[in-house]
Amino acid sequence: MTLDESHVEAISNIAATLYCLNRHEEAEQHWVRAIKLRPSYLEAVEHLVSFLCSVHRSAAAVNAIEFVQGSLKIRDESGVPRDPASETASDADSSSTTTLADSNLDSNPDSYVLDSEASDSPDRRFASMVENSKAPGFGSSGYRIPGSENGRMMLLIHAKGNILYSLKDIDRAAEAFEEVVLIGAGRQFRGIRSLIQRIQTVLAPRDPMSGRHPGSPRESLSAPLLLTPDKAKLTAQFVFAPTGGQLPGLQHVSEGAHKKSVVATTSNSLLSLAKIYQDAMSGGGVSSGLARQPAGVGDILSLYYLSLSLQESPSTANNVGILLAGVQQTSPAPSLSVSDLGQAASIPGIVPGSGLALALAYYRYGLTLDPKHVHLHTNLGSLLKDIGQLDMAISMYEQAVACDGTFDIALTNLANAVKDRGRISDAIKYYQRAVAANPDFAEAVCGLSTALNSVCDWRGRGGVLLAGGKYDRWHVDDKGMLQDVKSRGQGSGLMQRVVDIVRRQLKESASWGRGLLQEQSILQLAAQLRDASARSSDRSLDLEAELRKWAGRPGEGYRILRLIERATLAAMRRWYQEKHIMGVRSPGPYRRPKPPVSLTIPSAPTVLPFHTFTYPLPAKDVRMISQRNALRISFSTLRSPWIPATVYEPPAPPSPHLNVGYVSSDFNNHPLAHLMQSVFGMHDPKRVKAFCYATTVSDRSVHRQQIEREAPVFRDVSAWSSDRLVDQIVKDNIHILVNLNGYTRGARNEIFAARPAPIQMSFMGFAGTLGAEWCDYLLADATAIPPSTLRPHRINLTLGDVFRDEEDADAEDWIYSENIIFCRDTFFCCDHKQSADGHNEKGMTWEEDQRRRWKMRKELFPNLPDDAIILGNFNQLYKIDPTTFRTWLRILAAAPKAYLWLLRFPELGETHLRRTARDWSGEGVARRIIFTDVAPKQQHISRARVCDLFLDTPECNAHTTAADILWSSTPLLTLPRYEYKMCSRMAASILKGALPKGEEGEQAARELIARDEKEYEEFAIRLANGLSYRPRVFPASAGAGV
């Protein structure tokens, strides 16, 4: 230092010595001075960045790296950064680098930057650079450094990317990772997109005639390259063929550990970059800052393939598997073989060459690299579960939990899987472990709540304050005791946590697509919509002006997607009119509007629509949960590679009959088939032809066989892809397509989202709104769906209607966006008359029926007193809530001869309900609760006669069970608790349909349909105490009720 006070190496060594002496502030000052004197002395930069990160000054570390980048960046004569390999500026240049002129000294250490004003002159600073400009590879990185230093620069920029990612500055992190990749690629590409195009070109199948690769890259959105792991590992050899598969940017870096580290860093940068794009694609919102974001799955896969070829990584294999699992295409035959896929070809549900088959191959390949990789085990389990291999999925989840017993996702997935297998006790334990590991993990919290409610273990359930305590009034504390919310004035416990999660997620979902409606996108979207909806009744609508009103408002993306779906329907209608009404010979083309490419897949709330049946939620939340699920289904479908560019051709006018298609996964031994098995053969063939599309394989039950036999057209489409099924529906000339699933297990709602039929509706499968543009009508009645719960603006034909009804989007009290087809009585379909054992019923007298009831009662409950009154409920226990059970216990207390008959549905619920009954009402009441096992269908209907009065569950009514009970002539007492929940009004609808018309039936309805909880309790007590059994002289020794 005495000889040369600017000796950079000496200054850096002094800094290192000072650091070892714990004189950190002085060490930092020396490193800063060294970097100012010579930014190309990267060893000093490495030490400074390491020190700053160690003291949690991440922003300062980023600024130091950006100062060096800005100082060393090669520029042309105008000062614009320039790549040595191109006269055109790279599209990966960082917009955030700090140049000499930009930097200054800030006293705040958390925003640390270098002071260029105090440094030596640029001429002196770069003297050594001029001397080294003839060094091999000088400037090949795009910076004024020798080629041998390229690796160090890449490591620094990669560190910057990692820091920015940890600070959630995702756009700048992506820029950093791009820069690392482009340096490693020897600056041969103008940007990441150019590299992707190169990958896709060299990996695309060769032309069979010329044997050459295609001259242009494949269209990644419609046909991503599907490669097995072995083929993907060859990517670098093809992309960097002139250097033998080695990174061109490292050809001047010495062989050894350092070079291997840099190659690994390049691979990690590709992995990080692909993961950022993958998260953006699936995470919601609009990509604004990620201007260079690849367009789709194919582009992201290309980055992963190159990453994998540079360094085999289980994390890369895992991410590729996730992507491929969602690809709905198969690889061309020449590129895949059974040997490529290992055991994939032998697993039912896996089609060789499909995205699923390849995903399975990557997961298994990743596990060969790291057999204890918890994410690989978990995702492989999810893939297996999705294709119906539940036991194999459970095994995978168990292995994941064995690898990491605190991994919340694996624990929750395992809980879900074993619950589906009927192991509810095990499921609860796994949910509890997941919540203990991560109390904020929404899926675990909601899963635990649902599981505990299904067995009536309400300890710690708490409750919510809803409508001032009108709903969910009685809460349960941690000790299992009741609390009145009207006294507490607030919610608590697990149920409050679930409701809070719902509200937070719904609020967050409103930001999906926000910022999309900029002027250019407004003009493009309006042009698409106007083209599709030409000839519609709102041609005068100023689309641009209306769209500008939506800009920046909550729900921006949701509104746009609604318009796109409505325009699709308008285009189909236009096609029909021009071809079949106006007689246009060459109509079209009728282009399908597309979602903007910057929109990403929206998330859906953790609480599913079916769960809203038993969760105390306000009307708006129930509606929005269905809407958000419909939105995700719509978007995923419209982005699927099989969706054509035009709308599907509408059917010709009925000639001679209307074609009605029914899509269901429940044409088997399922309640829906029990209720509807005769319907399809009862259509008037002169007017209507029924088409049944069964999306599950036959269980060979009598119900399936009857539907297959009697339906005019029955198609087993269980193994069909979505596009094949949609194409068949179009070929079948379907006029009305009926959804018999809704949001229940096995639903194929993507079929409806593709809009293969001009009219689509929901019936029987789901007791609530679908909240979807792909559902036009819902068949119901005014009891199940009061007109007051409909959306205020009822017209749903044109684009203008969307703008008008979106004004009601924030209203609290409506539920149904569908138009309702109101039946005169009940809409509920029953098959009891057709399927009952009629010859044993016809001609039976009242006394004979009483005799049969008494005999069955004695067989079923031999120890019950003759004067006992049997109150019953045969629903699954998840439909019972604390408020209802409290009411039942009060009824038993007020009716001393009454017994309550419940089912072990599931078995574990008996233990919890008996304990709760003792805690709340004492042993005297608790011992008058009787449990029996679930019976087969016909026995269940037959033994329902033993019950004197069926007590319905107000939170979620009996549906199929209500019809069974009424068919057995047992009276049913119900309470339509919610005006806005169809599931809580179904029994009243079914009861009204069963009662005789006229004053007698109306009087019975008034006595059996309560208006509130108090009346429900009073009716039950009066009916129970008003019935008595007295001895009668019957041959079988019986009693008679009066």
UniProtKB/TrEMBL annotation:
GO BP: protein O-linked glycosylation
One Pfam family here: TPR_8
Domain of life of the native organism: Eukaryota
InterPro entries: ATP_synth_F0_csu_DDCD_BS, OGT/SEC/SPY_C, TPR-like_helical_dom_sf, TPR_rpt
Pathway connected to this protein: Protein modification; protein glycosylation
Record-listed E.C. numbers: 2.4.1.255
Keyword RNA-binding assigned: no
Region of interest called Disordered, as start-end residue ranges on this chain: 76-124
Alphabetical UniProt keywords: Glycosyltransferase, Repeat, TPR repeat, Transferase
TPR repeats: 8-41, 408-441
Biased composition, class Low complexity, residue ranges: 86-107
Record-annotated O-GlcNAc transferase C-terminal domain positions: 605-786, 863-1030
GO MF: protein O-acetylglucosaminyltransferase activity
Assigned protein family: Belongs to the ATPase C chain family.
Name of this chain's protein: protein O-GlcNAc transferase
